[in-house]
Amino acid sequence: MAVFNIQTREIECKIVFYGPGRGGKTTNLEYIHKTFRKNITGDLVSIDTQGDRTLFFDFLPIGLGKIKGCDVKVQLFTVPGQPQYASTRKLVLKGADGIVFVADSLKVQRKNNILSLQDLHDNLKDYGKSIFRVPLVLQYNKRDLIKEGFPVLEVDTLEKDLNKQLKVPSFPASAIKGDGVGQALKKCLELTLQHLQKELNWAG
Amino acid sequence: MSGNNLLSGNLSFISFADILQLLGSTGSTGILEIFNEEDSRVKIFFEHGDVVHAETGELKGEEAFFKTFSWEKGHFRFSEDFHEYEKTMESNLTGLILEGLRLLDEGKLDHGEGKNLVGHVPLLRGRFIDYAEIVDEEFFEKDEIIVREGRYGSWIWVVLDGLIQIEKKFCGKNIPVIQLGRGGFIGSLAAFARGDRPRSATVRALSPVQLGVLDAQSLSKEYSSYSDLLRTYFICIDDRLKKITDAYVRIYGNGIREVSEAGQIENLTPEKFRDTNLGMVISGGAQLYIECNGMFLNLGKIKQGDLVGELPFTESKRSYSFYLAGDGDFKIKVFDKKMLLSEFGLMSENIKKMVEFAGLSLSHTASSLAVKMLKLMQ
């Protein structure tokens, strides 16, 4: 649910980085905040939630066009993965216009990836949304760990586990090095704006 | 109550966080007032969509603001009635909201905190427990009895959802002592030391309740790996909580008769050492008292082997203090708290949460007791 700010003629929408705890959501956002300086208007706000931090900042998707003559402003959020942060997760996820699901490529995290995606599905359902319709991309993070000899899931396995039914764009990535971070965000922004366009045309 | 009322409604329909977001995104200027069921009121000042000040009673700024997140029921009103204020807040609104929700999720926003009135049962929440440690789930309907006082059992549960009430019998009546929400524990670690013992209180579901059963075997195994000192600490904290709860129920039933003044008690000394120290009773015994505003209430006997002093995890802003009245042989050996604290680092997360929660219950029940004493003296 994007918000129209009548005073500034802006459409504000929200993209949420979702995924299992310690999977690299925060690293993604930190990389984006560091790298895409010209797109960033405000500070990176960090809330110290146990396990991983909750971050958010405003992002201007330059070059992706306007909607009905309005500028688009995007807020990027991470969600704390730990089960206890139910109210925080609810607030962040409510009104999410697009989602980047950050999966952890580590073998030991296989089950947690699936549980977290299931959790996303359930949460969206609670707000009357379908995971099959919300703009969503998958990011398979921590690919760099292969070189360091860690047991890492094959991309095929991750696809089978997570993307068999969804069939959404997916990106191998290494948030710590920045590989695949920009691509996943850009794709998610495109899908989100397209989705908004479609919804607005329908309404207008 | 004057002012231009622009927007009002009920918190059960639109949450505090949602109203804040709405007023923030519309760039509003004015005062948001939130009233809860106990007629407490928080005023939040908005200027062009930013929160610049909040106040309730004596609290100001973020403290007043965050407190409001624990209010689930009540109503709100937004008006343009804007008067002079001191600027006490300037953080980003979304950041403030997320911080408030974090505090709520971590169980750090308690209702009351010793300010509860007579007849009002304090509510306590704990930190959330990791699902991985839960071996089974159980569901109870509203008003169902989960544990009955006097029956046997040593299961330990954690509240996953809903509200429960701890009640204790006095003269045939069940007296409510405390209510527990998410993260609250039923049962205590001391159960492993003492074996089968009757339950010390009744636990009732106040709403539909989901409980997690903790793995008693692994907890018990961990418990038995601890040093004698740490195990003594667990038992003492449990014992003291029982003493305070019993006194609370007694004063509830008997009233002022239970209370004495300092002059009436012999050998009375504050139970206090240097902050870094604790004591262990090595001979004799003492009567333990709780003191509030110069009045004393007997809590029962401290025996040889018990720990005295400010037990870790029971510290809080206190409206009360503890006193000891020792008998002729009463002797204490003082030792450094560090001996105990060093072992806390080795405890598993769940045991740590249980200990923290026991400490929190202890200080909350003690401050309810102190409030009760104050009310009786008025």
What does this structure look like?
- The complex is a heterodimer of chains A (204) and B (378).
- In chain A, strands 1, 2, 3, 4, 5, 6, 7 and 8 form an eight-stranded mixed β-sheet that branches.
- Chain A has 204 residues and is an alpha/beta fold.
- Helices cover 33% and strands 22% of the residues of chain A.
- Chain B has 378 residues and is of the alpha+beta class.
- The radius of gyration of chain B is 23 Å and the shape is globular.
- Mean pLDDT of chain B is 84; it is low at 111-119.
- Chain A binds chain B through residues 3, 5, 7, 12, 42-43, 45, 47-50, 54, 56, 75, 80, 82-88, 91-92, and chain B through 17, 25, 27, 92, 94-95, 97-99, 101-102, 104-106, 127-128, 130-131, 183.
The total of beta strands of chain A comes to 8
- Assess the beta-strand content of chain B as a share of residues: 25-35%
| First-to-last CA distance of chain B | 31 Å
User: CATH first level of chain A: which class?
Assistant: Alpha Beta
Q: What percent of residues of chain A adopt helix (DSSP H or I)?
A: 25-40%
The CATH architecture of the largest domain in chain B is: Sandwich
The largest sheet of chain B, given as strand count, sense and whether it forms a barrel, is: 6 strands, antiparallel
The CATH topology label of the largest domain in chain B is: Jelly Rolls
CATH topology of chain A: Rossmann fold
Specify the overall morphology of chain B.
globular
The chain pair with the largest interface is: A-B, 24 and 19 residues
The number of domains of chain B: 2
Number of strands of chain B: 23
**Structurally, how many domains make up the residues of chain A?**
1
Largest sheet of chain A: 8 strands, mixed
Number of helices of chain A: 5
SSE blueprint:
The complex is a heterodimer of chains A (204) and B (378).
Chain A: E1 3-5, E2 10-18, H1 25-35, E3 45-47, E4 54-59, E5 71-78, H2 86-93, E6 98-104, H3 110-126, E7 136-141, H4 155-162, E8 170-172, H5 181-203
Parallel strand pairs in A: 2-5, 2-6, 6-7, 7-8
Antiparallel strand pairs in A: 1-2, 3-4, 4-5
Chain B: E1 5-10, H1 16-25, E2 30-35, E3 41-47, E4 50-56, E5 59-60, H2 62-67, E6 75-79, H3 93-105, E7 123-124, E8 134-140, E9 145-147, E10 157-161, E11 164-170, E12 173-180, E13 185-186, H4 190-194, E14 202-205, E15 209-214, H5 216-224, H6 228-254, E16 259-261, E17 268-270, E18 277-283, E19 286-292, E20 295-302, E21 307-308, E22 321-326, E23 331-336, H7 338-344, H8 349-377
Parallel strand pairs in B: 7-12
Antiparallel strand pairs in B: 1-6, 2-3, 2-6, 3-4, 4-5, 8-15, 9-14, 10-13, 10-15, 11-12, 11-14, 16-20, 17-22, 18-21, 18-23, 19-20, 19-22
Helix pairs in contact in B: 1-3, 6-8
